[in-house]
Amino acid sequence: MKAMQSQCCSPDEVIFGTDFHQSLYCHLLCGLIFREEIQLVSSTFAHSIVHAFRTFEQVWEELCADIRDGVLTSHITFPSVRSAMAKLLKSNPELADLIHKKCSGLSNWYGLIPELFPNVKYIYGIMTGSMEPYLQKLRHYAGDLPLLSADYGSSEGWIGANVNPNLPPESATYAVLPNIGYFEFIPLKENVEEHVQDKANASFLSMEPKPIGLTEVKVGEEYEVIITSFAGLYRYRLGDVVKVMGFHNSTPELKFVCRRNLMLTINIDKTTEKDLQLAVEEAAKLIAEEKMEVLDFSSYVDFSTDPGHYVIFWEISGEVSDEVLKECCNCLDRSFVDAGYVSSRKVNAIGPLELRVLRSGTFQKILDHYLGLGAAFSQFKTPRCVGPRNNKVLQILCDNVAESYFSTAF
CB neighbours (10 Å) of residue 174? Predict the structure, then answer.
């Protein structure tokens, strides 16, 4: 690593490789070769780290064989990658035996990261918002290593710094950087009664609150962020909903809540990405008792029935009985606590929630779909609410349904 003058253990040919699966395999192999020097495991999103070590579970014996023989697997086909790896990969039976012994001695892969990389200090990446569902699995791999949530930024610009890195990612707050742009905040004080009035009276005009400045926000209130940047964006709405948790000196500390436009709605209900995440976490406790886990999830609103209903897609790590999955479906339905949803379900203005259990590898197919379109893996986020513009993703989900259950909770 010192010879490469890089903070990354992989050569450029691997980092910039055009085949994600081959690059990931080589990343893992380089990590094992330089295991004593690795001090940090990092990626843009927590999902990427979890995916990498789930892949490791499947290929670790092949990696050990490569290290033992000093020959790269034939699955890696790009000449430039093979050439770069050949300079690093030398026969090392002792290292191969050590890795094999450590992996064989783990219980369900708990503490995998510190076992592989004994000098790692922490895990770093974006772990809030849509990444929170991956924290449980990431902690499983990390063992006692701390998880550090990255600073708060977006494609449009940087927003805040994590000034309390010792806090767990779920509690992370970000001090707004006032010199990096001009920030404004739209207060969010919507409620179901206002929404009902808006629906009942077509002439009713719901005026959105005026944006307020950085120093005018109040602790405990939620806002949508607006940024005017040096790069040329003028009063650009990020679509992020944040909550003011306090102040760092005179600048507000924000907690990311959810994306404003990711929402399930049929009648007067407003179910956010955060609401969906909490419902899935609650229902997943039932299969956790069976030593299973929800690997990933998504959702959409099915208007093909009358009334329309929520559809939740789950990919599960193994087989779960029908009785448990039926109860999971009911638990999901009960866990949506939005007043508009609950009242609509009680009067059948929203139909029974449907839980669709997917075949193994479905979300990998979705990832491959986006990678095929040219997306970078480090920037990939599983779509939590599949809208009408995501027909291909919805088709992948629907084509891979193994079982379907309808709620009887209401």
Answer: 27
- Parallel, antiparallel, or unpaired for β 271-272 and 294-302? unpaired
Q: For residue 325, give the DSSP letter.
A: H
Interatomic CA distance for residues 3 and 393, integer angstroms: 43
Of 156, 159, 300, whose CA–CA distance to 223 is shortest?
Answer: 159
CA-to-CA separations, 172 to 48, 148, 166, 293, in angstroms, rounded: 20, 9, 9, 25
CA atoms of 9 and 300, how far apart (whole Å): 40
CA distance 120 to 35: 9
- Would you say 138 and 109 are in contact if contact means Cβ atoms under 8 Å apart? no
> Residue 168's pLDDT is what?
92
Q: Is the peptide bond before 307 cis (omega within 30 degrees of 0)?
A: yes
pLDDT tens, 49-104? 999 999 999 999 999 999 999 999 999 999 999 999 999 999 999 999 999 999 99
Q: Which helix (H) or strand (E) holds 396?
A: helix 391-399
pTM of the model: 0.81
Q: How far apart are CA 243 and CA 222, in angstroms?
A: 4
Give the tens place of pLDDT for each residue, 329-386.
Answer: 999 999 998 889 999 999 999 999 999 999 999 999 999 998 888 877 777 888 888 9
Neighbours of 354 (CB within 10 A): 20
Looking at residue 306, the DSSP 8-state letter turns out to be S
Q: How many CB atoms lie within 10 A of CB 331?
A: 20
Residue pointed to by tokens 């040329």:
232
> How far apart are the C-alpha atoms of 96 and 113, rounded to whole Å?
16
